[in-house]
TrEMBL record:
Gene3D superfamilies noted in UniProt: 3.40.50.20, ATP-grasp fold, A domain, ATP-grasp fold, B domain, Phosphoribosylglycinamide synthetase, C-terminal domain
Enzyme class: ligase
ATP-grasp domain sequence ranges: 108-309
Superkingdom of this protein's organism: Bacteria
Record's protein name: Phosphoribosylamine--glycine ligase
GO biological process: one example: 'de novo' IMP biosynthetic process
Pathway: Purine metabolism; IMP biosynthesis via de novo pathway; N(1)-(5-phospho-D-ribosyl)glycinamide from 5-phospho-alpha-D-ribose 1-diphosphate: step 2/2
Keywords: ATP-binding, Ligase, Nucleotide-binding, Purine biosynthesis
Required co-factors: Mn(2+); Mg(2+)
Gene encoding the protein: purD
GO terms assigned for molecular function: ATP binding; metal ion binding; phosphoribosylamine-glycine ligase activity
Originating species: Knoellia locipacati
Membership in a protein family: Belongs to the GARS family.
Record has Cell inner membrane as a keyword: no
Amino acid sequence: MKVLVIGSGAREHAIVRSLVADQAVDAVVAAPGNPGIDTIALCEPLADATDAGAVLEVAQRHRVDLVVIGPEAPLVAGVADVLRDSGFDVFGPSAKAARLEGSKAFAKEVMSAAEVPTGLAHLCTTVNEVAESIDAFGAPYVIKDDGLAAGKGVVVTDDRDAALAHAEACLAKEDGQVVVEEFLDGPEVSLFVLSDGVTVVPLTPAQDFKRVGDDDAGPNTGGMGAYSPLGWAPDGLADDLVARVAQPTIDEMGRRGTPFVGVLFIGLAMTSRGPRVIEFNARFGDPETQVVLARLLTPLGGLLKAAATRRLDEYDTLRWSDDHAVTVVVASHNYPGTPRTGDPISGTGDVEGVPTAYVLHAGTALDESGTLVSAGGRVLSVVATGADLAEARERVYAAVDLIGLEGSHHRTDIALKASRDEIAVS
C-alpha cells in the first residue's frame, strides 16, 4: 500500500512515522512535508494544501492507495471530495462533514440534535449581542470565532473588555460570527475517534496544554504539549464517550446525508456535572497525535485504510503500549504572536542519545546553505515515553535541553500535575 499524507506539521510527521513502521505500507509520500519527514519519506512540493487540483495531481502521479489529510483547512475546502470523486480512498471528511470543525455554530446544532452533552451557547453577529450574552453567562467569559482559527480563535478571560475586543476582531472578518459559551469547569480531555461513516473506534484519551506559559499563563496557542494515558480519568471513559457523544454524532451526520469519514476529535471538560463537549475538530489534534500514536501498537496504515473503505467493524479492539508518552513543543521567539523565523536549529541529532526520545518537525525549513532553521511558530515537538509519566517527563525534558534555537521557549510543566496525582475529577 502506498500512502499520501497531506500536511507539513509535527502531526503529519507523527502520522508518517507510524505509517512507515506499518509493514503493510510499502511507501509514504508527503506533500509538502518538512525536513524531518523528508528523512523517512518522499516529500513532494505543494504550495497550497487547499488546492484540490494540485493535491489530486500528486495522488495520481504516485498512484497512491490511500490519501490521509492532516490539517483542517483542506478538509473544509473540500479536497477530500475531489479526491473521492476521482476514485481515491481518503481518510478525511467531506467539506459538508468537516463543518463540524469549520463552524462552531453548526457543531452546536448537531450536538443538540444528537443530544450530546455540551455547554450552553449563543451565536452572535454583533458586539451588542456578545455583550448581552457574556453578561447573561457571567465570568469567566468564553468567546469563540465561529470559523477556523488555527487553534487560536478562543479567548477565555475574566476581563470583560478583553472578551469584547476579541469578539469585535472576529466579527470584523468577512461573514464574521462568534459563539459565546458558558464556562465549563474541570480538567480537559482530548479523545480521537475513528469513523468510517457508521462504525466508531476510539483511540486512547490524551490531555493537551493550550496556554503558552507554565501554570496555564498567557494566551491560547495551537498547543504547547500533551501526554497520554490519563491515569486520573474514570475507567471506561473512552467507551462512555463513544456511547454518549461519538456514536450519536456520527449517526446524526449519516442521517443528514453527510457521513463523517475520518477522525472526529472530541475536546471535552470533565465537569462537576459530568463530561461536556467543548468542541469538535475534523482531524487529528496537534500535539495530542504525537503522544497517542507514540503508544499505538495496532498498525496505523491498515486502520486508516479500513476507515476510508467502511471496514472499521473489523477492528474490535486496538493494541496499546503500557508506556506513558509526553510531548513538549519548542516554539519560536514571540509565539503565539508573529513568530521570528530563520533562526538556526541545533541539537536535533543529539536527542537520539536520550532513551526513547525523538524529534518531530513542525515549523522547520532548510536555508540556502542546507542549514535547518525555524520557519513557523511551533518549531519542533519532542517526544519521549517511559514506564510512568515521571520517567517520560524526565526523558523528554532531557531531550528538549539538547535543542538549540535562539529565542525559543517551551513549557516546563507538561504532565507535571498528572505525574504528581494532582488532577481530580469532581
